[in-house]
Specification:
The protein is an alpha+beta fold and 272 residues long. The protein is 22% helix and 21% strand. The strands form two sheets. Strands 1, 2, 3, 5, 8, 10 and 11 form a seven-stranded antiparallel β-sheet that branches. Bound molecules: 2-oxoglutaric acid (AKG) and fe (ii) ion. Fe (ii) ion binds next to loops.
């Protein structure tokens, strides 16, 4: 795993809101990530049990609706698959996320497999952190390509620097690619950047950067394994998102989100 970050990479991330690390995983690691992710997704679907009370298995309802054809989305696979837990709890990932974001501790918000199906729909432009149950400009995600991500099959795209002017206004991932630009018309002037990358590459992105992905024009899936991270010390903002019902009901706005079962601390500078 290419987990050492240069000052130049950190500066690029802070300036643009995303960073591609090509060939982040070596061939053996990539094979393990692929097998683990495939198995965890298969088990989840076979179990027919949602991982968080009212989330359906893939958060997509009718398999023929538009969103279901954006991606097969399975969240919190680390909760139900030991091998995935090992991959996701790797403190090296936490250290990279924390170093890029410039924070002292990293908790898992949620992992998710995102498989864009053959001939799948595009992922409309959106921000991540405004969906989540804490507000943080330092929220960050890792997106690991399990297949070559290309312009043809729906690689990631970013609006560079948009994380600097984003507020918490957002749109859903709907049918219209450009909804987000009604909210942030100033970003229409910025040239979007495509991030094609070979399988095993990682893309880190800020929870506040505008991003999306194109349609999958190919007859094969475009698979990615991802994880959203919450800086340690973040507090509850009143949104449910993926919080379990009981825990959600126990929280008041402003409470620290520091439950180690629900949001495991995978790295902290003081304990490293
Ligand atoms: O994989 C995709 O198409 C979108 C991924 C995404 O939005 C994310 O990882 O935050
Ligand atoms: Fe996203």
């Amino acid at each position: 795993m290419k987990n050492q970050l240069t000052d130049q990479q950190i500066a690029y991330y802070r300036d643009n809101g995303f960073l591609v690390i090509e060939n982040f995983l070596d061939a053996e690691e990539l094979e393990r990530w692929r097998q683990t992710t495939e198995e965890a997704v298969e088990q989840r679907l076979a179990s027919r049990k949602p991982v968080v009370d009212d989330w359906d298995l893939t958060n997509q309802g009718d398999p023929d609706n538009f969103y279901a054809q954006v991606f097969k989305q399975c969240i919190k696979l680390a909760n139900t698959h030991a091998g995935m837990r090992e991959l996701m709890f790797d403190p090296r990932l936490g250290e990279m996320a924390g170093t890029l974001a410039g924070v002292d501790g990293i908790r898992i918000w949620h992992d998710q497999a995102l498989f864009k199906p053959p001939f799948g729909n595009p992922t409309a432009w959106h921000l991540d952190n405004p969906y989540w149950s804490f507000d943080s400009r330092e929220a960050i995600s890792i997106w690991v390509a399990l297949d070559d991500a290309t312009l043809a099959n729906g690689c990631m795209w970013y609006i560079p620097g948009s994380h600097k002017t984003a507020t918490w206004e957002n749109v859903g991932i709907g049918m219209n690619m450009g909804e987000l630009f009604k909210v942030y018309p100033q970003w229409r002037e910025i040239e979007p950047v495509a991030c094609p990358c070979p399988a095993g590459s990682a893309v880190f992105h800020s929870g506040m950067v505008a991003h999306g992905a194109g349609a999958n024009m190919t007859n094969k899936p475009r698979r990615a394994m991802t994880c959203g991270y919450m800086p340690d010390g973040s507090v509850f903002n009143g949104k449910k998102n993926v919080l379990p019902n009981d825990y959600f009901r126990s929280l008041k706005v402003g409470d620290p989100l520091n439950n180690d079962e629900i949001n495991p601390l995978i790295w902290s500078r003081s304990q490293a």
